[in-house]
Design a protein that fits this description.
By secondary structure, this protein is mostly helical. The protein is built from three helices and no strands. Helices cover 62% and strands 0% of the residues.
């Protein structure tokens, strides 16, 4: 709640020592590592989406249905 920050020091006085020196982090290194991890995860997700799209298309064809992921030119205007 809104008072949680006020009571943290009362409930757990040793959680964050007040006289401890501040740690210096290197934001550039952390952000580039994070960005690399995010980029890798995005590539994995895009690959999974492509595989799922392929599976849906194959199922549609096997069932004799049109591919539901291919929008007709008239469908695009309806979704905007």
């Amino acid at each position: 709640g809104s008072r949680a920050k006020r009571y943290v020091q009362l409930l757990s006085p040793d959680l964050h020592p007040l006289n401890a020196p501040a740690t210096q982090s290197q934001p550039g290194a952390a952000s580039s590592t994070h960005q690399s991890e995010v980029s890798e995860r995005i590539m994995e997700l895009e690959s999974e989406v492509a595989a799922l799209r392929g599976a849906i298309s194959k199922l549609a064809i096997a069932l004799g249905q049109p591919d539901p992921l291919i929008l007709k030119p008239t469908d695009r205007s309806e979704h905007n």
